[in-house]
Design a protein that fits this description.
Rossmann fold; EC 1.1.1.31; about 325 residues; N-(1-d-carboxylethyl)-l-norvaline Dehydrogenase, domain 2; alpha/beta; NAD; six-stranded parallel β-sheet
Amino acid sequence: MAALFRGSRSICFRWNKHVFGSTRSMASKTPVGFIGLGNMGSPMAKNLIKNGYPVIATDVFPECCKELQDLGAQVVDSPAYVAEKADRIITMLPSSPNVIEVYTGSNGILKKVKKGTLLVDSSTIDPAVAREMAVAAEKMGAVFMDAPVSGGVGAASMAKLTFMVGGLEEEFKAAEELFTCMGANVIYCGQVGTGQAAKLCNNMLLSIGMIGTAETMNLGIRLGLDPKLLAKILNMSSGRCWSSDTYNPVPGVMEGVPSANNYQGGFGTTLMAKDLGLAQNTATNTRTPIPLGSLAHQIYRVMCSRGYANKDFSSVFQFLREEEAQ
């Protein structure tokens, strides 16, 4: 259980980060349940509060709830209690088994869910599991959508996430008001599971790009180039990518990224390895060749066994540097 919770149309107003919804606006909006208050879930829930939504929250780690409770959220003991009190629920959890437990477990959402409830899962999981949860929810009279996100902790804090949404299109319209409070881009992908498919494709490319950036920067440094100068050249040339210009893996090149903080925070190596495993499984099931995706999966799995599991995935640069020293 220790890792279980780790993740009518109206206008959403953007508020200053220190200002929260007034009592009047809070009262005019129905409560939103939020389950999973980890690195991503907590800032997402905060942005709902900032936009005037009463939030009913739970997390397996009580300390994760305190800050949100101080901002006015109601904290309850289990996903089932959240389902009793809210008819729109968002989950942000680490993996497929966590999602299955939170939705269908003995204290899960579906034990107490009300008919007509909208269930939105923003975890990154196997598309097949998303479809299974949709079927289980439908049996209880509820509606399930998968809506994984891209952008990381920084984008979650600034309400600039990208949501990739799978589900019934008419329900997408109803959920969009919540997504726009937490993100800058909301993309409807198709039926349940297609949001997860889009996310897995994105993260596979992200991992490949990060490894390529780390290799390139390491080679340039060994050839005598200053890393900041090399990054500047890459970012005005055809090799430019998100990993080079926004999330550079080399310490000292950029401020405000995990590489500037001993690779703490951000998107963990364990989570990247998990997502690549999901991509590998779906590629196998669809008989799709992914030679670079498979190699990236292997690299991140090795990193997890070499002490990098809890570091940001950009620590692949440090991993390569240590490999060359052996």
